Predict the 3D structure of the following.
Amino acid sequence: MPESKILVVGPSWAGDMVMAQSLFITLKKAQPDCQIDVLAPAWSFPLLDRMPEVRNAIAMPLSHGQFGLLDRIKLGKSLRANNYQQAIVLPNSWKSALIPYFANIPIRTGYIGECRWGLLNDARKLDKTLLTMTVQRFVALGLPNNPNCVGRVSDSVTRPIEADDAKNVGLRSANPTYASGLLPPEYPIPKLVINQNQQEVVIDKFKLNANCVGRVSDSVNRHLDADNHSSTKILALCPGAEYGPAKRWPASYYAEVAQHKINLGWQVWLFGSDKDKDAAAQINSAVSGACLDFTGRTSLDEAVDLMSLVDVVVSNDSGLMHVAAALDKKTIALYGSSDPNFTPPLNTKAEVITLNLECSPCFKRECPLGHTRCLTDIKPQQVLDSIELNS
């Protein structure tokens, strides 16, 4: 039987791309010999490179929100030579289904979304009451299009969510009741794979040494300093969130957490993009520059490799939070305007802190009530208590 070739049209957000790995793992479990290529923004390649299920990453030449019909037609036609048997389109936009259509891929799977009849010939209706989580929606597209497969997944999926895990991954109930009588699909946990050589390169670049590296492999420890091993723990803080301030815990609160752990002998590292430099500077200033500030200084691949070295991560609901979870880190995830039941950190070591106020989740960039109590009422001591519990 010839190998199945599958093209996945990937999402445009880092967290969603991490969660898409659950789909890739599901496909590989069902079809071990299948070849999975992912059409995705070039910035996401460092994530895809760390997913062993993915054969090739193909750059989407258009930015998020850009239509570019002629470019989509051209790229679609260029992909015909790859002879894909199936395309799985994760975004719901009409334009995201164009490239598989022009690539003449025989089976084009996705949710109906923006009335994509014709562009998709395996168009599925999304039951939001059954598939309440983004990861469930992704995984369901990798299963046959019938209720029995969506509701009761075969052994092709390696790890179900168990009752004891429900709190950690943000589920409202470990045994929810659905009107359809079905259960949502089980899903495997994303797991990014770190290349030790790349890890060593980033350690050299930032002149790190064994005194500020917590748990690394024996060979990396030898590379650093065979006579200078240290049990110093590292706390990573991720104070940014792409969507807006209603997802960002106050920088002053992060600073309190940082100072407490520094006083206990921990290293504190700050992660984020250029947009997060002001928040990081505020945190670092409050602790007299005692943090190691990586915001705006790393590429995504470097940030992933650096985060693989830390012990605990405290993060807003952001792409880096999902990266930390996929690196199997103890993760404290802070939710304000967003919903942890929709996009939780997929890691049983993770703890979600959310206040479940009547006004949340509102999914707004800025608090419509002007107070952002969903975040400001989460006090630093609560986060510190969670760190102690998880470390």
Notes: The CA atoms of residues 14 and 294 lie 18 Å apart.
